[in-house]
Amino acid sequence: MSTLVGVGVGPGDPELVTVKGVRALQEADAVVVPVMSASDGKDGGEPGRAEATVLHYVGAEKVVRVVFALNERTDRARREAAWDAAGERVAALLRAHGSVAFATIGDPNVYSTFTYLAQTVAELVPGTVVETVPGITAMQDLAARSGAVLTEGTEPLTLVPVTAGAAALKEALEGPGTVVAYKFGRLAAEVATALRETGRTEGAVWGSALGLPEESIRPAAELAEGPLPYLSTLIAPAPRGSGRGGKL
């Protein structure tokens, strides 16, 4: 029986991979890591964040780089072709080895490449057992590093991928509770505007490359007008009074 395990390896800091995640990586016959495709559809050559984390725990000979159209948003046919090829590659590994781990940044059930891969592979290799190992998310890591509290009492928590547009973020900011924005780097100026127009700039914080040498964590009031790294994360905490436990 073939087993495909999606392993969350966190946002970048190798120390944030769970003990269970390390064991899953080490016990798998092969560990797949996603890499972005170049303009010709081939391996772009640059190691991704998931690969860099995985190499702290398993040897390079066990790691298999598989090209995904992670950066393709306009050419649907090219994106679908890349997905099909990636699915076939992982299916072949499962047929040959039986146990394959797929390393994904963050958590495999939160905006992860693994979701689509598992659906494709399950069709190509019937009977495949699909499992996931949870990982630390960027919002958790940013909260820990910045001191931002994600939720208190009965506050809701809203997670918005800004790839859906700044309007979706503004709508969330107009509601109650803490708002977290993912993948907003290219729309930094629009995010700054949404925060300002909703009165949510104060106390908000953004970060990128968490746990890596190039880490940047700053108040949202210092959002640059130009584009930031694509995998930037924003936390806009809920407005809170000074009373302890006021929202219990």
Describe the protein in words.
The chain has 248 residues and is α/β, with parallel strands linked by helices. The chain is 31% helix and 21% strand. The protein has a five-stranded parallel β-sheet with strand order 3-2-4-1-5, sandwiched between helices. It has a five-stranded mixed β-sheet with strand order 6-7-10-8-9, with helices on both faces. Helix 3 (76-97) packs across helix 4 and helix 6 (166-173) runs parallel beside helix 7 (188-197). It is elongated and about 55 Å long. It starts with a strand and ends in a 12-residue tail after the last strand. The mean pLDDT is 89.
Features:
31% helix; 10 strands; 248 residues; alpha/beta; five-stranded mixed β-sheet; elongated
Layout of strands and helices, then pairs:
Layout lengths: L2 E6 L10 H9 L2 E7 L12 H6 L8 E6 L7 H22 L1 E6 L8 H12 L4 E5 L4 H9 L10 E5 L4 H8 L4 E5 L5 H10 L7 E4 L7 E4 L13 E4 L12
Parallel strand pairs: 1-4, 1-5, 2-3, 2-4, 6-7
Antiparallel strand pairs: 7-10, 8-9, 8-10
> Stretches where pLDDT falls below 50 for ≥5 residues?
none
Terminal Cα span: 48 Å
Q: Helicity, in percent? A: 25-40%
Strand-pairing-aware structural class: alpha/beta
Strand content: 15-25%
* Main sheet: strand order: 3-2-4-1-5
Number of helices: 7
> How does the major sheet shape up?
5 strands, parallel
Give the radius of gyration.
19 Å
Mean pLDDT: 89
- Described by the principal axes of the CA atoms, the overall outline is elongated
